[in-house]
Amino acid sequence: MNDYPRTGLRLRSEPGVDPEVRxxxxxxxxxxxxxxxxxxxxxxxxxxxxxIKNRTTKEMVTATFFAPYExxxxxxxxxxxxxxxxxxxxxGKIDALYAMLDSIAxxxxxxxxxxxxxxxxEEEAEEKGSQLVDEYAxxxxxxxxx
Length: 146
Description:
alpha/beta, 4-stranded mixed beta sheet, two-stranded antiparallel sheet, globular
């Protein structure tokens, strides 16, 4: 995999994404870069919408991972963040931010599965994604550090 010109993890946020979500996700990505390797660049796009359309199934979802057929095409992740205020009302701020980070971690496990030419396995991504966010939460002072 050393033939790929671009490596790493990038985060892009569209206008309208809550600044607290953006900052929490940026901090999470900084930590992720110390925990995982990204031999093929993957960009995470934070979207202001409540849901986004899965381009394959056409269903409305909160997060997607685009897994190209070829490894010379860069994958990407899209995360819907527009329900952040609703999640705060339902769960509180910490759990609302946890949900955003959990979506990122879940999709990053699909990225890892794709890198290893495995089937994209939902159960594994859910379990490993949650474990990753829990590990992050144990290694920082507060998920609310903005």
